[in-house]
Design goal:
This protein is an alpha/beta fold. The chain is 32% helix and 16% strand. An eleven-stranded mixed β-sheet has the order 1-3-2-6-8-7-12-13-11-9-10, with helices on both faces. Strands 4-5 form a two-stranded antiparallel sheet. It is globular and about 55 Å long. The relative contact order is 0.14. The model has no long low-confidence stretch (mean pLDDT 96).
Length: 413
């Protein structure tokens, strides 16, 4: 799109107009957006790598003057005082924001539906979910209603929706992309797990978005003044054995071995404590996956210290394994999109947990289809601060695979 704009093969109004027509056609079917702007949001005079490119923003990120609702009725009266850091950086790079996208209530679900905006559907099959919590974002991008955008991820909420809709998503290391202006606020303990990051139809596009939004900002307590690290040479890829991982390996010429054994059940248990049990009482009302914890006492300080210690021990073992295998390939999540309302259960999301619990970057890349024609995806993990390694690896896999098909509903009739 950028090359077409620069060569004047395409004008900015034509590009925005084509996306607006796609929104008008598909929003009634998919319900991806909570708000479509009558006049797209842009920064006059801004010029950068996203100049003229239509993007969307997950509703959990503030846009000045608009509510950041996250599907929660009491927040309909909210109005953001200013843009989130991420939105400001996108506008400064020339992006044109076409609207905000739907989420589950306060982001606490792997499906996207709520009492305020309703159910969001998958452009590969509207009877199925696009996942959550960045499900509106993934549906909008996969349906070509926006060229890319920003989601957030505390338990797979970028990678799962990317997987279920056949697009790509990058979960960065905490501190790499400022999350100031996100709801719920990113502080302890949520910031231990949760980050914001780019979503797009190709890995190359993820890289463009990531370079725009990454960088230190003092307003985020997790943000760091990042200095480029020397990236390791990937001589071997570690794998968690799975048919979908084998789909990815068939596309690339890389030596691979089974990743050293990890206590995946314990990783899931500790992540579940931080993401679900620790959040239940602060949220204060039942969500689909925190309700069970409201009937018991909130975690004690002693329990929190024990869980932090458990997390550190598990993380140290995992990082030692990444010394041997700079890239780990895992299923993401290991199956295609399920029918709306037929969530397979929290334990089926365990492949998402490690990257969040350990603060690792992870990238989601589509590699094929299941027997029902729904997209299948792998995720690649690396050590902290090695997003560029994952983007390089993803582009190699993408080049070998070829362009992934667009969702059926996205195709022009």
């Amino acid at each position: 799109m950028r090359r077409a704009l620069e060569s004047r093969e395409l004008s900015a109004p034509e590009l925005i107009g084509s996306h607006r027509r796609q929104v008008e056609r598909l929003q009634p079917v998919l319900n991806a957006f909570t708000c479509v702007f009558t006049e797209p949001l842009l920064l006059p005079g801004a010029d950068g790598p996203l100049s003229g490119i239509p993007i969307s923003i997950k509703d959990s990120l503030d846009i000045a003057g608009l509510p950041t609702v996250c599907g929660h009725l009491p927040r309909l009266a909210h109005r953001a005082a200013k843009h989130s850091v991420c939105v400001s950086r996108l506008l400064g790079a020339g992006a044109v924001v076409v609207g905000k996208t739907n989420t589950p209530e306060v982001l606490m679900n792997w499906e996207t539906h709520n009492q305020v905006y309703g159910v969001t559907r998958n452009p590969w099959d509207p009877a199925r979910t696009p996942g959550g919590s960045s499900g509106g974002e993934s549906a909008a991008i996969a349906a070509c209603m926006s060229a890319g955008g920003i989601g957030s991820d505390g338990g797979g909420s970028i990678r799962l929706p990317a997987a279920l809709t056949g697009i790509c998503g990058l979960k960065p290391t905490p501190g790499r992309v400022p999350a100031t202006g996100h709801f719920p606020p990113v502080g302890y303990p949520g910031g231990l797990l949760g980050v914001i990051g780019p979503m797009a139809r190709t890995v190359e596009d993820l890289g463009i978005l990531f370079r725009v939004v990454a960088g230190h900002d003092d307003s985020d307590p997790f943000s760091v003044p990042f200095l480029a690290v020397d990236l390791p040479v990937v001589s071997r890829v570690g794998i968690v054995e799975h048919p979908i991982v084998r789909m990815a390996l068939a596309l690339i010429d890389e030596a691979c071995e089974e990743f050293p054994k990890q206590d995946w059940d314990r990783i899931y248990e500790v992540w579940r404590f931080f993401f679900l049990k620790l959040n239940a009482h602060p949220i204060g009302f039942p969500t689909p996956h925190t309700a069970e914890y409201l009937s018991v006492a909130a975690p004690t300080g002693q329990e929190m210290l024990e869980m932090f210690a458990a997390r550190d021990a598990l993380r140290a073992k995992f990082l030692r394994a990444l010394d041997q295998f700079p890239i780990l390939l895992m299923p993401n999540p290991g199956f295609g999109a399920w029918r709306v309302g037929e969530f397979p259960g929290v334990p089926f999301m365990t492949s998402m947990c490690a990257a969040n619990l350990f603060g690792l970057p992870a990238i989601a890349i589509p590699v094929g289809f299941d027997a029902e024609g729904m997209p299948l995806s792998v995720q690649a993990l690396a050590k902290p601060w090695q997003e560029e390694l994952l983007l390089d690896f993803g582009m190699k896999l993408e080049a070998a695979r070829g362009r992934f098909p667009s969702a059926p509903l996205a195709r022009n009739k």
